[in-house]
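For the sake of transparency, this paper describes our internal protein records without simplification. Such a record has a labelled line for the sequence and another for the backbone structure tokens. Nothing more is needed to write down the fold, since each code stands for a local backbone conformation. For reference, a complete record is included directly beneath this paragraph.
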Amino acid sequence: MKKVLVLGCTGSIGTNTLGIIRNMPEDFSVCGLSAHKKKESLGFLCAEFRCPGVLTSEAGTDGIEKLIADTKPDIVVNGIAGAAGLIPSKLAADAGVDLALANKETVVMAWRQIRDAAEETGCRIIPVDSEHSALFHLLRQTGADAVDTLLITASGGPFRTLTSAELENVTVEQALQHPTWNMGRKITVDSATLANKGLEVIEAVRLFNVPAERVQVVVHPQSLIHSLVRTKDGMLYAQISDPDMKHPILSALTWPEVRANYLQPFELFDATMTFFRPRMRDFPMLEYAFEAARKEKSYTIAYNAANEVAVHAFLEHKISFNVISRIVRTVLDKDWTDVPRTLDDVFAQDEKARRLAAELI
């Protein structure tokens, strides 16, 4: 039985993780939980799973470090959203505990530092994003050396068919109506701008150690194929399942095993799958991500930070939808050639980008 520590247990990833554990009590147990501020919900969950360790974000870095040390998990699920999830990832890596990683900022902001710590301690990092989970398993089945191109699918978000003129007037409420996934507010807006897919491009480049030129994005509105790989002989191999985050979470929890489970298997009958090229001119956040991935240094930090500040302003009705990408473009045009050596360096560049974005707003 694996002991699971769930960070961000009241969010989407955490809730789905606990749902899996409820249905597979002979395979997994909860040894610890953390949440941001939902103390009442946290209390109920702690009582339900009878877990010995629990804390809110008020406990800070020392609290999470102590939680990992006290609960001695076999695997940490990091479902914390935003830059707040970076330090917990580093702490799991430092402790040598396997990390089921759903926090994008860990990879986009500080992959070098996290990767080096994991290699030193033996921590194994298993991606939980559906796209990177698919690539993770496909690369192991085909052999990484046989693969030429990684193809990440994108739903296209709620505005996939809108014209450039129509995009100027979309509302917050419209942006939060994702056609296939039920996610948090920030990531849902990122899906509408294609920034979420941009972040996933940066993640793919780093997680799988490939140049940006070997990563492609294909719009697939049904979200049934989560990623594909094209091998050097031109063949495509795909991972297909219903758009349910329980699948990649369960794959991470059971890895390296492939285990029978309670989830409904995907059926091809009556399924429709269509594919389109992304409209980068109308959704430039994707193009900017490819640019940041190619330039490396601190450009990915700036991309992530400026986008986070701009999306927050959009959700508060301070700016319009298309201004998100304009703010990110302006921030990226500054000098981001410093190479961060430490996490302090990472956070300094992050703060610089946030300040510039806030001034623009």
About this structure: The chain has 15 helices and ten strands.
